[in-house]
């Protein structure tokens, strides 16, 4: 999960305080989850779990930066080849693709996992610490990769019970937003032909829980640039622009919106239909200016829960400026540094949440109602521009053990049982979808 370049870790220790108060005690529905194919999925996941943990720890000890995932890709390819899958390497750099063909008519479904690590000098917090100085899996891609390999293993085990074709995409260079485009440009969708695509990312929720929502799951961020002709004294213009932009914000400065632990609050947080994390526009940075020989430019980063709102902001600003005393100086207004958003297909999202909930219990998968306002997105968005798909958040925290799976945070750690949860939930999801 890429975090906008200026964003630092936001949801750290305060989340420990809210734990399952918000999400409830996460339990699985034994009556529904231990029947038929899903019992086999759970049994086989249990059988391979320790080996998946070993894989995760190996990847964690030998992390590789975006574009440098040579060892990681080789390990992935070897594992998939040993499963007997058709494997293609070096797609868009170090990308690996595996194909599970049932040779029965059915859906074509893709699962994507990102495989790169991050550059960081922060010390590791686990015994199997990184051996590559300055590189660490602080975003959880080692977990994502291990889960995807586990899903491939489980679905290969039950291949005779499935229909259609399942593709596994192991994508390099997510952190620098180059990997997805590189794979697409290198002919990914000439090699495979999925009609649906899915992915997950670790989040600081309790282990055993996944969450998502239809359409955008993350807030939209855009940098607004306003250009004016220079005057002898630009102080009045500067004060006017700052006030104009600040007035666009509809969240009070003293709102609990700004306290990140509120994201998981039972009454105000993301999972409550009455959440305060919707219908918002905020100013994400101070208004800055830069003078040139004949012009002065103003910059402001805006954030909104509704991607369409920022376009109306441009019109609103332009209209007010043209009716102001500074109309003659006004030259242009435009967006810069736009963030490509993960946009979940509504029908696929609803069906996925309902399917997992029916198998593993109502509190295994939840729909979020709010929009996460911390500058996140993922280049999985580029795959979604080609194919409808769903991006899930997977809980990896264990508050009782002091484990908080907040990506990019200094104390990032993971309850490895989330590997088992991810393999079970999403193997079951894909198995059910092949029936349809």
UniProtKB/TrEMBL annotation:
Record key words, sorted: Hydrolase, Manganese, Metal-binding
Domain of life of the native organism: Bacteria
Co-factor binding details: The Mn(2+) ion enhances activity.
Residues that hold Mn(2+) according to the record: 139, 141, 175, 201, 408
One Pfam family hit: Peptidase_M20
Keyword hit for S-adenosyl-L-methionine: no
GO molecular function: metal ion binding; N-acetyldiaminopimelate deacetylase activity
GO biological process: diaminopimelate biosynthetic process
Entry-linked CDD domains: M20_Acy1 (cd03886)
Record's keyword annotation contains Aminoacyl-tRNA synthetase: no
Cofactor: Mn(2+)
Protein name: M20 family metallopeptidase
